[in-house]
Amino acid sequence: MKKILSNIFLLALSLVFITGCQDRSELTAPAPQSPKSGTADFTRFVSIGNSITAGYQSSALFKDAQLYAYGNQIAQIVNTSYAMPLVSDPGLGGQLQVHQLSPNLVLIQQPSSGVPLNLSYPAPYNNLGVPGALVYDVLNATDSMSCASAQVGQPNPFFDLVLRNSGLHLGSQIQQAMALHPTFVTCWIGNNDVLGYATNGGVLMNNGVAIPITPTDATVFHEYYRQLGDSLDTLAVRGAKIVIANIPDVTTIPFFTTVGPLLAEEVPWAAHSIPGLFYQIHGNTSADPTHMADSSTLANLDVMITLSGQNYTGLLGTPTGKWYRDNHYSALPPGIDTTMPFGFYPTNPWPDALILDASEITVAKNATRSFNSSIGAIAAKFSFGLVDINLVFNTIFLGSVTQGGVMYNGVKFTPFYITGGLFSLDGVHPSSQGQGLIANEFLKVINSKYGANFPLINLSTIPGSLNFGKRVASKNFYFDVSNWRNFGL
């Protein structure tokens, strides 16, 4: 346990993401059919996973989004019951809704005030996905204090919401799945074992101290996934069909590909005799004048500014130490001088926590390749169905470069922020349409591997990624995308 905790950090639940709100109160299924087709039997269907499986969309878990979780969309197609830990709007996590579209996009954060709607459900939920879960957690976590993030000072209350062990005492995700005696299981886990490292810029902020972190160690990941494979095979021996999925390249999601290229276009470097953006190299606590990203570097994503960093782009060129104040530094790191122009001077650089430099990008990509190798090996060993989500997302990413997007059911998908359709407004989690696309990829594997004939979902009938709030709340966090164009230089 110590080894895994020294090498990982979950995607912080307190990260400020971006979200939309849409009316998803009705998910219309096609004509009802039998939950059995070929050798696939969905009579008792269970999903294991993390936030994507849970239907977490745009920084919050709430009913209107949960209804579009890929597992529930599959359940609707195959006509089977599928209980979920539903949460009333505005959900838990801090949902942000579109407040203003023109002349500048402004999003507003809702309070994390949703209420669980079916805590009294008398059995484990069919959807056991827990936002923030690692592979370790699927096997071992039973509540907010036994999950991996609790060991680094961040208990995760979503484990209490989903697993309800204060009442059911049925154990971890995999143990609860076994208790349901499922006939079909989908499992998609491993994303957070690298995503947390990447979204935090490879740095854990702890009481004003920046601690370098890494993804889960490859050997540790493989061992935990091997244990998970053994448990899933136990279910298979009992008659369940199993389909698992690998993980996409996290560096291709809008959370990393949005801000840098916009900065490259908008910052008047030459007009102010600025060679580029000075940034801290990973692991450095002091200024280093040798690390600078020019317009080409930012545009080509040779380094990646996180979407969280957008909140500080409006301060570029001004003498400020706001980032250090926001992160509760008791004193500035050695060599940092906040009287100099932020980001435009080597002694007041762009913080390590808000950027993936070239070495960090390599670390994230290598981790993803290693994890997917482990997942593929387990699928082959036990003859599980394997959904190659990494290939699907890469196809969309490359298709966006070569042909402006990839069409599904007349819907064009790109990995672009807001306009791409694939991701919700947090730049990390799939939109409702993205969830439908994922459900279809699972259905394709199910049909092929088990001789089934389940119909695919018509994605054009599902709401897209840009959705307006039903109401406007006051005194909430405003995220103004125009900030990166208002440098005040």
Q: What does it look like?
A:
With 489 residues, the protein is of the alpha+beta class. It folds into 2 domains: 2-251 and 360-482, SGNH hydrolase (Rossmann fold); 257-357, no CATH class. The protein is built from 17 helices and 17 strands. The chain has helices at 2-7, 51-54, 63-66, 70-78, 135-140, 158-163, 173-179, 192-199, 218-237, 254-257, 259-266, 295-299, 310-313, 322-326, 358-382, 389-403, 432-450, and strands at residues 36-37, 40-41, 45-49, 96-100, 106-109, 184-188, 203-206, 209-212, 241-245, 277-278, 292-293, 304-305, 355-356, 385-387, 406-408, 411-413, 478-480. The strands form 7 sheets. It has a 4-stranded parallel sheet with strand order 3-6-9-14, sandwiched between helices. A hairpin with a 2-residue loop joins β1 (36-37) and β2 (40-41). α4 (70-78) crosses α17 (432-450), α8 (192-199) packs antiparallel against α15 (358-382) and α9 runs parallel beside α15 (358-382). It is globular and about 70 Å long. Residues 1-29 and 471-489 have low confidence and may be disordered.
The residue fraction in helices comes out at 25-40%
Unreliable stretches (pLDDT < 50, length at least 5) are 1-29, 471-489
The average pLDDT score comes to: 86
| CATH topology grouping of the largest domain | Rossmann fold
Taken together, the total number of domains comes to: 2
Would you report the number of β strands?
17
CATH-scheme architecture of the largest domain: 3-Layer(aba) Sandwich
C-alpha termini separation: 49 Å
Gross geometry: globular
**Structural classification:** alpha+beta
The side-by-side strand order for the widest beta sheet comes to 3-6-9-14
Radius of gyration: 22 Å
Strand content: 5-15%
> What is the level 1 CATH name of the largest domain?
Alpha Beta
The CATH superfamily of the largest domain appears as: SGNH hydrolase
